[in-house]
Prior knowledge:
Number of strands: 10
Number of domains: 1
Shape: globular
Distance between the termini: 34 Å
Radius of gyration: 15 Å
CATH topology: 2,3-Dihydroxybiphenyl 1,2-Dioxygenase, domain 1
Helix content: 10-25%
CATH architecture: Roll
Amino acid sequence: MSLTDSVVAVMLPIGDVARAQEFYETGLGLPHDGTTPAGELLFRLAGGHHLTLRPLPEVRPSPNTAVSFEVGDITAAIADLESRGVRFEDYDQPGFTTVDHVFDDGATKAAWFLDPDGNVLCLHQQV
């Protein structure tokens, strides 16, 4: 057995199931793939992978990027998500500044947004 052959389920903590489902299904356009007996929401990703949203009594999201979605055209992806109500973060720090929500280091373009529970999500495009 090799983990390189494993299908992955990324798990994120959530507080409000209905609010999270609305954001991930309608806001991000991810197909809802059911709910586990434990009340976890499953969203289908490419390659048989899943995003699992796990209700917890006390949500403690990581302050760092939890999930990054690779896209072919970051500008178009941002416009699509903004039209669905997703709000992107902007940064202006030494060595880390976004322009029109996008950080570009020459090799990768990236843009960050938060889900309703504060989980940091990202879009990235290889340049």
